[in-house]
C-alpha cells in the first residue's frame, strides 16, 4: 500500500505492516500486561489531506489508565480492541497534506502505534515541533503538554510571587520536576516531595530545588515545617490524598492549591478523605483544577519561553526512557510503581534519513 | 460625665451608666450563659475627634464564638474581661467629631455595648448608613457586611451564569438567604439547603428560591439530584462538613465552591474529612475562601445595588430579632442551635428623638 503514497522520499524504507497496542481487558487495580495486546496491521495509506507519521517517542501519563477504564477529560472510554490513546512525537513519512511535509517532526495524539495516519485535524492536536535545536523527545515533556501543564498550572493558576514558598508534590515526576524549576524562575522558594532519597537528591542537585523531602519517611509534617519555615503559599499537587492533606495543614493566608494530578488515588479510586479541607476557607485560599487542553491559547508562549530558558541554562528536564515499542505496558506500570524519574517515555524508533539528504 | 459633652441635643435623656457584655470564661463546646457577664460602666465622654454611639441593634454571627476562643481574621483573641466583639447600628448622641453629627445613624464595630465611644477610625469600620428610607436594622444584614458577603461571594468569586444551578447551604441564614436571591437575580437556578420544612417553605415562598431541601432528611444526595437535575455549578457554602461533601459529589465541570462559612464545624472543631475533595481537580473546579473586609472597595457598589433591588421589590431579607440587650448570649446560642431564620439580631434600643425635631 505504501508504494502508492502521493509524496514520500522514504518509500523504500517503509515496512508493509506496523504494530499497535490495543486494549485486551479493562484494567482493574494495578496495570497488568494481560490488559494489552500487540497487533500488526498494514501500513496506512494517506488519502487526500492525510499523512503518515512514524513514531519516534511515545509519552506515558497516569491518565492513560483512566482512558482504559471510563474515559477522562474529553476522551470517551476505550473499548476492547481499541488502540490505547497517547501522545507521541514522530516524523512525517508519507504525505498528501501540503501543511505537513515529509520529514517534518510533529507531535500529537499518535496513539500506541508504530505508524499512524493523521489529517492534522484539531481533534488529533497535531503540532509541528518548533525547537529543532533541542531533542525531539522534549516535545513530549518539557516542550509538550507535560511542560505546558507545569507552566499554565504555576503561572496562570498559582501565580507565585517573589519570596513565596511553592511546595510541589510528585516533584520528581514529569510535570512536578518542571513546576519546581519554574517556581525558582519566578523567584519563589521551591520545596519538592518525592519518593526516596535518590529522587530528592536529583531535585536539589540537578534541578536546583531549595529543599526536597522523602514523603515516605516518618514525620512528614515536621519535615515540611522545617523545609517551609514561612508556611506554604502554593501547593502544586500531583499526588492528592494524605500528602496533600499534610501540606494543606500548613498553608498560609491566600494560598493557592493547583490540583494537577492525583496519582495516589488513581489505582484504588479516591480513598483518602481530606481532613484539612477547612483550611481553604479559613485561610482565604483557593484550590483549583484545570484541563490543559482548555488552555491551548497559552501553548505557544509556554513553548517559546521554556525553550529560551533551556537555551539559557535556567531550565532542564528529566526523562526516563525505556527502549522499544514492546515496553509500552511496562512503562505505564512504572508510573504507578513510582519508579520513573521525570517524564516517562518509550523510544520507539529513530527518524529515517531523507534520501535527498535534506535532513 | 455626659453633661460636659461638646455637642449633644440629647444631654437630658442620656443615662449616667451603660451596660456591656464581657467574656467571663472561654467557650468550650456549645455557647453557655456562664461564659458572659453583664457589667455597668460610666457613660463614656468623647474627647476631641470622638463621638458616642447609642446602640440600636446588634448583629450576631458564628465567628463571634471564634473571637472568644482564638481570634479570627484580623481580630486577636479576646481576654477574660474584654467586651465581646460585634457589629451594630446606632445613633450618634454625643460628638466632638465634625464628620459624625449627633443624630447620624452609623454602623460598625460597636461591640456588645449599650453605648460606645468611637473616633471614626478605619479600625472601627464605622460607616454612615446610606439608605435612610430603609430600616436601620438592614445596615447589619442585607445592607451590611452580611449582605456584602453574599454579594462579593456570589458575584466576585462564584460568578454564576444565566441558567446555571447555584446551591446555597445554610440558605435560611443571614448570608445564605441573600445569596440565593442574588443567584436568581443573576438568572441562575437557586436551590437552598436548610434545617426543617418551615425554613424550606420560607425559601421557596417569600424568597423565591427554585427549590429548597431539608438537609436533615434521609436521602440528601437523591433529593439534591432531583432538585439540581443539571448538576451543580456553584456551591455557596455556609455549612461545610457532610453537607458540603454531598454537594461536591454532584458538581459540574468548572464548578465554583465559595467557602463562606463552616457552621457545622465550629463547635467541636473540624471533624468531617471531605471524601469528595478530588472532584475539585477532576471537574476543573475551584474552591475559594474569602475575608469580607479584604473586599471593602466593593461595599459601596454592593450597598447601592442591593438597596435598588430592595426598592424594586426584587430582593428582600429575613431578620430574626430578639428583644433586649440582656438577650445577647441567647441570641448567639441560637445560631449554633440553628433556630434562627435569617439574620440574627438583638434590638437594643429605639433611637432618641432630637429635641429640636430635626429627625
Molecular structure report:
The structure is a homodimer of 359-residue chains. In chain A, 25% of the residues lie in helices and 23% in strands. By secondary structure, the first copy, chain A, is of the alpha/beta class. The first copy, chain A, has 2 domains: 2-141 and 319-347, Medium-chain alcohol dehydrogenases, catalytic domain (Quinone Oxidoreductase, Chain A, domain 1, Alpha-Beta Complex); 145-293, NAD(P)-binding Rossmann-like Domain (Rossmann fold, 3-Layer(aba) Sandwich), CATH 3.40.50. In chain A, the strands form 3 sheets. In chain A, strands 3, 4, 5, 6, 7, 14 and 15 form a 7-stranded mixed beta sheet that branches. In chain A, α2 crosses α9 (299-311). The longest helix of chain A has 14 residues, at 145-158. Chain A is globular, with a radius of gyration of 21 Å. The relative contact order of chain A is 0.15. Chain A binds chain B through residues 237, 240, 259-262, 265, 270, 273-278, 280-291, 294, and chain B through 237, 240, 259-262, 265, 270, 273-278, 280-291, 294.
Amino acid at each position: 500500500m505504501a508504494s502508492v503514497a502521493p509524496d514520500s522520499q522514504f518509500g523504500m524504507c517503509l515496512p508493509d505492516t506496523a504494530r499497535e497496542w490495543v486494549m485486551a481487558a479493562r484494567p482493574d487495580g494495578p496495570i497488568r500486561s494481560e490488559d494489552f495486546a500487540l497487533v500488526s496491521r498494514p501500513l496506512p495509506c494517506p488519502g487526500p489531506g492525510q499523512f503518515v507519521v512514524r513514531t519516534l517517542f511515545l509519552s506515558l501519563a497516569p491518565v492513560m489508565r483512566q482512558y482504559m477504564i471510563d474515559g477522562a477529560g474529553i476522551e470517551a472510554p476505550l473499548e476492547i480492541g481499541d488502540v490505547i490513546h497517547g501522545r507521541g512525537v514522530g516524523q512525517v513519512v508519507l504525505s498528501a497534506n501540503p501543511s505537513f511535509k515529509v520529514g517534518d517532526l510533529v507531535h500529537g495524539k499518535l496513539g500506541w502505534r508504530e505508524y499512524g495516519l493523521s489529517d492534522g485535524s484539531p481533534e488529533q492536536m497535531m503540532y509541528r515541533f518548533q525547537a529543532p535545536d533541542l531533542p525531539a523527545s522534549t516535545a513530549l515533556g518539557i516542550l509538550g503538554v507535560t511542560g505546558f501543564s507545569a507552566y499554565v498550572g504555576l503561572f496562570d493558576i498559582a501565580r507565585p510571587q517573589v519570596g513565596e514558598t511553592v511546595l510541589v508534590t510528585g516533584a520528581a515526576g514529569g510535570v512536578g520536576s518542571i513546576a519546581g524549576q519554574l517556581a525558582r524562575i519566578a523567584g519563589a522558594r521551591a520545596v519538592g516531595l518525592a519518593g526516596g532519597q535518590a529522587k530528592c537528591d536529583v531535585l536539589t542537585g540537578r534541578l536546583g530545588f531549595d529543599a526536597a523531602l522523602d514523603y515516605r519517611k516518618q514525620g512528614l509534617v515536621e519535615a515540611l515545617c522545617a523545609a517551609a519555615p514561612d508556611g506554604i503559599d502554593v501547593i502544586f499537587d500531583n499526588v492528592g490524598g494524605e500528602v496533600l492533606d499534610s501540606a494543606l495543614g500548613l498553608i498560609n493566608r491566600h494560598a493557592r492549591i493547583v490540583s494537577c494530578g492525583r496519582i495516589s488515588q488513581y489505582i484504588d479510586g479516591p480513598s483518602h478523605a481530606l481532613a484539612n479541607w477547612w483550611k481553604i476557607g479559613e485561610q482565604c485560599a483557593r484550590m483549583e483544577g484545570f484541563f490543559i487542553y482548555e488552555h491551548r491559547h497559552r501553548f505557544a508562549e509556554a513553548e517559546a519561553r521554556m525553550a529560551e530558558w533551556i537555551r539559557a541554562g535556567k531550565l532542564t528536564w528529566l526523562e526516563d526512557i525505556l527502549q522499544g515499542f514492546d515496553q509500552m505496558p511496562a512503562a505505564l506500570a512504572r508510573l504507578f510503581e513510582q519508579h520513573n524519574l521525570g517524564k516517562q517515555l518509550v523510544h520507539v524508533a529513530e527518524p529515517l534519513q531523507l534520501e535527498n539528504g535534506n535532513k
